[in-house]
Task: structure prediction
Amino acid sequence: MSQSSVETRPHAQRGVGDLFTAGGRLAAIPRKAARREQLLVHLAETLFAADREYTEPEVNRLLLTVHEDCAALRRYMVIAGHLTRTRDGAGYRRATTTL
Result:
């Protein structure tokens, strides 16, 4: 039984497939804000469950699966509002939005 290319390449279904290598790693963090926003939405929806809190090391481990600069990705995600940080900075949650 074969899987479709969308199932084997989840990045393709959100229009960000060209940002990733064949191995599933992010080639580079986009410089253009609109393209970066598209990527951040994709990462939030695919890496983080909406119903749980993550520690900073957990967030870093998840982001490291796609790019070595997990600190930049984490910062971009918080600034863009895709991840929220607890007041004490110890926990992160995927922001819930209605699109």
